[in-house]
Amino acid sequence: MEGQRIAGKYRLARLLGRGGMGSVWLAEHLSLRTPVAIKLIDVEAAKNATARARFDREAQIAARIRSAHVVKVLDHGLTDDGLPYIAMECLAGESLRDRLSARRRLTPAETAKIVSHICRALSRAHEVGLVHRDIKPENIFIAREDDGEIVKILDFGVAKVTDALAITGMDPTRTGALLGTPYYMSPEQARGLKSVDYRSDLWSLGVVVFECLTGARPFTAPALGPLIAKILGTPPPALSAAAPGAGIPVEVEAWMRKALAVEPDARFASARELSEAFMVASGVADSMDRGSSAGLPDGKPPSAVRPPDGVWETADTVALPSGDGRAPVAAAPQPPVAATPQPPVAAAPQPPVAPLSSATGPGAVAAARPVAPARVLVWAVVLLAIALLAVSGVLAATLLR
User: What is the mean pLDDT of residues 23-39?
Assistant: First the structure.
C-alpha cells in the first residue's frame, strides 16, 4: 500500500504498526506537505458492522476530548474503496510498552509524569461522559515535543459512553461485554457488569503504575479464568516484594492498595484525586523547587474529598529528569563561606515581666510592669523643681506689689 493515495488528500509513506483492527501509516498531506498518521481498518474487519462502528466511534470520541494528552484527530472519512480512515497528528517517540521493554521499570519520579499526564486526559474524558476501558502501556504514548516529553492516550475504540445523548447510534461496546486487555481489566469489567464507570479506568491505571515501578504485572495467570479469579479475589502483591531494590516509598504501598481496591467505592474518587495522591506518596510534590504542591494538576494541595469538576491546565507539571530519561544534573555544591568572628555582645538585662494577676481576664491587653526605682526618683526631682518654680513665682509677684 506504500504510495497509495487516501481520499485524494494523503499519500501513504510507510507502515508504522499493526493492531487488532487495522494498521497505522506515516503519510503526507499532499497540499500542506506535512506528516500525518493514517489509521486504516483492515478489509476483513470492515465487513464486520460492530468493528466498523467501533472504528468510527474512536474518531468521534477522540475528537471530543480537548486535551494535549489525547492524540489529536485531524480528519475522518472514507478511502476510494469505501473503507473508513482516521488522520491523526504524527507523533515522534515511543509507547510506554516500548520504554518498559527497554528499561524494565521506571523511577517514582518518571512514573509520576505518566500518572499526571494520563490523569489529565482521563479527567477530560470522564467530564464528557467517556470511559476509556482499555488503559494499558500499549495505549500510552510518550511523545517528544521540543525539548521535553508529553504523555498521550491512544485508542478510544472500546470506550464506553456514559452520557446517552453524547453520541447517537449503536454502541458497539455493548454493556456487559468483556472488553479490554485482560491483565488491565478492572474487577467490574472482568465480571461483565453493567455498572462500569470512570473508576474502572483508575483501576487499570493502578495496574500500569504497578508495572512501571516493578517491571511486572500484579496479576498473572496462564489462562483467562484463573486470571479473573485473581483479579476478583487476590490482593495485589506488595511493591517491595515485587521489586525489592527499587526504593519505592512505603507511602506508595498504601496508594496502590487503594488504587487496586476490588470495590469501586473504595478507590480514589476521581482521576485528579488519584494523581494528587500519587504526587505526595511518591515524594515528587515535596521535592520540587516550586513548593510542596508542585506537580499537582492545579498547584493546590491535595484534598481528601472529591474535587469539583473543572478545567485543568494542559502544561507539564511533573517533568521527567530529561528527554532521554537520564537523571537530572545536580548543581555543584558550593564551599561554605567562613564567617568572620565577631566579639560577643552582652545583652542588656531586662526587668522581669510580672505575671497576669488573677483579676486580669482573657481580654486584657497587657500586664502591669513594676516601675524601676531610678525612674521614680527622676520623676520626683522633676515634680519638686516645678513646685519650687511655682512658689518662687508667687513670692516674686507678692513683693512687686
Answer: 92
Predicted TM-score (pTM) above 0.85:
no
pLDDT value of residue 384 = 78
Q: How far is C-alpha 117 from the geometric centre of its chain's CA atoms?
A: 6
Query: CA 341 to CA 101: how far, in whole Å?
Result: 59
Q: Which domains are seen in the chain, by residue range?
A: 5-89 (3.30.200.20), 93-287 (1.10.510.10)
pLDDT of residue 277: 96
Q: Which residues participate in catalysis according to the annotation?
A: 134
Give Cβ neighbours of residue 178 (< 8 Å, ≥ 6 apart). Answer: 185, 189, 190, 192
Helix 199-214 × helix 108-127 angle, to 10°: 170
Residue 364: band (very low, low, confident or very high) from pLDDT cuts 50, 70, 90: very low
Report whether 39 belongs to an annotated binding site: yes
Collapsed DSSP state (helix, strand, coil) of residue 271: helix
Residue 28 CB-density burial (10 A; 0-12 exposed, 13-18 middle, 19+ buried): middle
